[in-house]
Amino acid sequence: MAVPRPAPPSITITTIAMESLPVETLSHIFAYVGSSAEAFLQTCSHFRRVSNDTSAKADHLLVRYGRPHAVEAAITTHVRVLTPALLDHLFSKGATIQRQLAQRLVRDGLLLPLSGLTISILYAKARELYGDWKNDDSDAAELSELRLSRGTARIFRRLHVSPAVVKQVETFIERSNYCLNPAADGFASDLYRLLNRFPNVILTYAKIGMDINILPDIPRFFVDFLHSDHFFGDFIIQRPVELLALLLRHNLLVLSERQFADIVRLLNDSRETIAALRAIFPLLPFKASAIAFRILVSDLQKDDARGMDLSTARWLHDIHPEPEALEMVGNIVHQTLTIPDTDLETSPAYVQSFSTPLYPSTCEWILENERNLTGAASICLDHLVITMARAEDEAILTQSMTLFERYVDAGVPMTRRHVAWFSYARSDDAIVAFVKAVERTGGKDIIMDVEDEVGGGSASSNGMPIISADAIHFQLVNPAHNALRHILCTIQKERAIAIAQQNHCARLVSPLPPTRFEDVIEDRLQYLTEDEMKQEVDKLRVVEERVT
């Protein structure tokens, strides 16, 4: 028999606790919960008394509807509680009356349920702001006509609004205090369409106290606003994120950490949109990039279908350029791009079948961040070396050679397995580039690999190591010179040997001693049988003729 799950703990506000709160705190609570919160009204007598306070009612209307629309809401929705005292409190706390509301008072019969004193206060405030007006006028209709005037036209599939029309519309809104209602349907798209063409309207909205935070679902508004340009693609002057930055900068919109986290979750499937949000990160009073990074990583780890790859990790680093994001990139490079060791026997097939998933831009980015991506550049160099070795297309070869030289100049080490891969290179230019790089850098890391092989002699009967002649010879010659000899001895393609040897011998101001072709022959022949030696001599004689 299943054990019933315990009910979640409930939070109970006791009467004693409510009674102990100061009146100012209760008034502040009422401003946000309003008279509809019957549970609060029944909790304590103090809260009920606060709910009847005119100042608390005014605060509630301002919080719920905002300063531009509080008076209109009091007249049209809460007329039973509207009194001259409440109206005075609203005006004293910053509420305004839009001219379009003054036009509607008589035209729409809004004055009928109001007392004479309330009407007098309304008209006095309207005349103070606008002087005289005609009841038959409609600011909404006039504004619509202005926005569609002859000064607005499409030019080259983009909207062009003449400066005269822009100035006229912005002045009209400033003088009439015309303000979109956040509670209206389609508010996000209407606001974007208005600010997209007339961005200075935001200054008027800031002055009269427009408050987008009165909306019950700020994350949904934010996402709808971001996607508004999808509906007006040919009429884009400013991107939504640029206008959202203006709203945040003028405090028309304020985001909390919780709301921002909800926004990131809603936008999780749109990388481009989330990346665009970076423009507003500096305007938020919290570490927005860290919140976005944490949520996105958590969602990616839960979603096996999407997974985590290098491009995703780079995208996350662009959003949150901190060490933890770089560490993630480095881990993914090691997990997904590491190339296994190959010897001379398996290298040909591996090189010819290899295809790198790295783009040139990714290689450049990894090199720029190598200090914080331990070992990632070495893995990327492996990919570049094999790409150079198998490249036949001139553009791919040139691009990979350019990146290869940048990596080598930055100090990313070359290893002996690079020699194995280059031994079967298709392009002579690739081999020449590799030989030049070794000579330029001294072949340090290749030498270390060779030292391990050449210097590791056997031990005598008394336990002392036996140093071979090869090891002694290795220590006497210039290390970089020896590395080049090792490369030339390893490369199997005859023509590549000739090209590489000719390039090295023709070099001028090198501190390295000139490599004699006979040295190459000698190194190649000393490990061969008599029959193999004859074949090799015949091959190398042909090569020598090409070089000389």
Concise description?
The protein is mainly α and 548 residues long. It has four domains: 15-132, no CATH class; 138-252; 255-337, no CATH class; 427-457 and 467-547, no CATH class. It has helices spanning 15-19, 23-33, 38-43, 45-51, 54-65, 70-76, 84-92, 99-107, 116-130, 139-147, 163-176, 187-197, 201-208, 218-226, 240-249, 257-266, 271-276, 288-302, 310-319, 323-337, 347-353, 360-368, 376-390, 394-409, 416-422, 428-441, 444-454, 469-476, 479-490, 494-505, 517-525, 530-547, and strands at residues 152-155, 158-161.
Looking across the biggest beta sheet, what order are the strands in? 1-2
Please, how many helices? 32
The dominant shape is elongated
Kindly state the number of beta strands: 2
Name the quaternary structure. single chain
Whole-number average pLDDT? 74
Low-pLDDT stretches:
1-12, 153-158, 449-481, 492-496, 504-521
Overall number of domains: 4
What is the radius of gyration computed over CA atoms, rounded to a whole number of angstroms?
Answer: 39 Å
Indicate the percent of residues in helices: 55-70%
The largest pleated sheet is described as: 2 strands, antiparallel
Q: Report the span from N to C terminus.
A: 94 Å
Structural class category: mainly alpha
Strand fraction band?
under 5%
Protein name: F-box domain-containing protein
